[in-house]
# Entry
Amino acid sequence: MVEKTHHDMKDKFRRSGYTLTAQRRAVLEALEGTQGHPSAEEVYLRVKKNNPRVALGTVYQALSVLEEIGVIGSKRWAESPTRYDLNTEHHLDVHCCSCGGVAEVPGVDIGDLEARVQENTPYEIKSTRLVIEGYCPGCQGKA
# Structure
């Protein structure tokens, strides 16, 4: 983890009252070593490589706590398992309609969109969820 992220994470744990257990650390390391946005099952399989005795429920619990305190984010699509992400900054993701893969969309700032909505409505914006779907390069032409 980069130093700023590591410091932010420690601060989030301190403020939440949770501790960074070995299981939570293993889940974070699995997320760090993953391309894209893995499902809980994919995180579990990565953790299990180094810790064969870990239970799937332990990974789900760790992901839940990490998301609750803001160390990780998650994305949910109707026909795909929840995907987890270390990038908690505002960003766009694109979801493959065929294989369920998820990738970040670089160079697009949704913070401006939130600010414009805030300025033009009486709502206090809590979060923004945009659904962008298409076919990844591996699935194009197969659909």
